[in-house]
Amino acid sequence: MRTKKVLAFDIDQTLNIAKTPIPDEIAKLLIELLPYYEICPISGQKFEQFLIQIVNPLLENGVHAVALSHLHLFVAQGTQYYQYYPGGYSDKAFQVSITSDRTPYNEKNWHLEYDYPLEKAEVEKLFRVLEESAKETGYWEEDKLAKGDEIIEDRHSMVAFSALGQKAGTEEKYAWDPDTKKRQEIVKKAIEKAPEFQFEIGGTTSINAFKQGMNKKFGMEMMLKELGVKKEDILYFGDMTQPGGNDYPVVEMGIDTITVRSHEDTAYALRGILGVIK
Ligand SMILES: [Mg+2]
User: Fold this and answer.
1) 1 is a domain residue
2) How many percent of the chain have pLDDT more than 90?
3) Is there a contact between 85 and 109 (Cβ–Cβ < 8 Å)?
4) CA of residue 113 to ligand 1 center, whole Å
5) pLDDT tens, 116-148?
6) How far does the centroid of ligand 1 lie from the alpha carbon of residue 21, in Å?
7) How would you class 90 by CB atoms within 10 Å of its CB: exposed for 0-12, middle for 13-18, buried for 19 or more?
8) Is residue 267 part of a domain?
9) Which CA distances in Å does 199 have to 86, 189, 192, 221?
């Protein structure tokens, strides 16, 4: 018997190798699950990254555009929420069955349902604080950046620090701070300088900074509200569920959580779920 209505996922290291598109295996499993569950990726990335990492691989693996109405994008840790309207947002009443319809996909049919951005002064302060903290701890790796790459990025409702930038190689990133100790040092400094913000360790080289309370707990609470479900209806997958990790707020909320080491673990669990429901 299916007791969950929603499968929610962290992205980096849970559905993919950090910052890369989800592998075909995960895409195929999600497509198989879409008729049964609301599928909710929630992660610190920008909307454009959600398209590259999740939506495009689903399309390449043959998802029907109409099924995307069951895919809910909780962008920037759920401070923005995008929903897909197969007939366009202006045609909200558009209803068709998942299996029969062949309505083509249109990127313009993603609609921003809500948005909680940071103010300009807050963004500027976080840029300054993160740079200073990384410099003071000796982890400001500007010399290792690819041309045109940035360490600190404005993600609208959060500021993201990626020690080696966005374009660094996966292996290089894994090797940089495998035990999170470097980032813990940077975070310690940053909290002293800007206690009104929260700093969370995520991915392989990242620190996410945002207003107090605007973490995954906020995003998950918005998810409950927007989807009209209860905590018990959700099963959450994440790789950073330890205290201080960016998935920990979900654990603290009392939502059922599966801790994974990688997308391989997630695939294993999803195959199990499909085995039970099909
Ligand atoms: Mg993760």
Assistant:
1) no
2) 80
3) yes
4) 24
5) 999 999 999 999 999 999 999 999 999 999 999
6) 14
7) exposed
8) yes
9) 37, 10, 11, 19
